[in-house]
């Protein structure tokens, strides 16, 4: 699924739409260069799930917990090396009653679940002032149904 995102408000709206199809236990991997809007997307998800506090990238803290319903575990692995990920106890959070949103998942280096929803945000012409191109795809049947649900939310009337 590909979506063009012209503004920050549109990215927030995409996050709200994404929240409509997420459930407890879901994992979303967020891919894309620094500053493309990954945390803005997370902010949209958090707002839709009732979190009213500040949403920031956990680049230095590695994880933020947002007390929404269900809770959101927001990870950022940008500063980690592959071996360091083994010591995080990540599986403890992935098995809790929340939604895990993981920026910079480093899928080739980490022992992360293969089944997930993946959201890749790209700049157009390497220009931060232009619209973003968002590609969303699924790994696993559970997440494929979420893509179908998202299509219905983003494109009403889609069958």
Protein architecture, described:
The chain is of the alpha/beta class and 159 residues long. It has one domain: P-loop containing nucleotide triphosphate hydrolases (Rossmann fold). The chain is 26% helix and 28% strand. The protein has 4 helices and 7 strands. The chain has helices spanning 8-19, 38-48, 90-94, 141-154; strands spanning 2-5, 27-31, 63-66, 72-76, 99-103, 116-124, 127-139. The chain has a 7-stranded mixed β-sheet. The mean pLDDT is 87.
Layout of helices and strands:
Elements (H helix, E strand, L loop, with lengths): L1 E4 L2 H12 L7 E5 L6 H11 L14 E4 L5 E5 L13 H5 L4 E5 L12 E9 L2 E13 L1 H14 L5
Parallel strand pairs: 2-5, 2-6, 4-5
Antiparallel strand pairs: 1-7, 3-4, 6-7
Helix pairs in contact: 1-2
Helix run count:
4
- How far is the first residue's CA from the last residue's CA? 14 Å
* CATH 2nd-level architecture: 3-Layer(aba) Sandwich
From the 3D structure, determine the CATH topology: Rossmann fold
Helical/strand content category: alpha/beta
Shape: globular
CATH H-level homologous superfamily name: P-loop containing nucleotide triphosphate hydrolases
The share of residues in helices is 25-40%
- Overall mean confidence score, pLDDT: 87
Query: In terms of per-residue confidence, which ranges show pLDDT below 50 for 5 or more consecutive residues?
Result: none
The helix/strand series, from N terminus to C terminus, equals: EHEHEEHEEEH
| CATH first level | Alpha Beta
How many strand elements? 7
Query: Radius of gyration in whole Å, from Cα?
Result: 15 Å
What is the domain tally? 1
Largest sheet: 7 strands, mixed
For the biggest β-sheet, the strand order reads 1-7-6-2-5-4-3
Strand coverage percent: 25-35%
Family: Belongs to the TsaE family.
InterPro entries: P-loop_NTPase, T6A_TsaE
Protein name: tRNA threonylcarbamoyladenosine biosynthesis protein TsaE
Keywords: ATP-binding, Cytoplasm, Magnesium, Metal-binding, Nucleotide-binding, tRNA processing
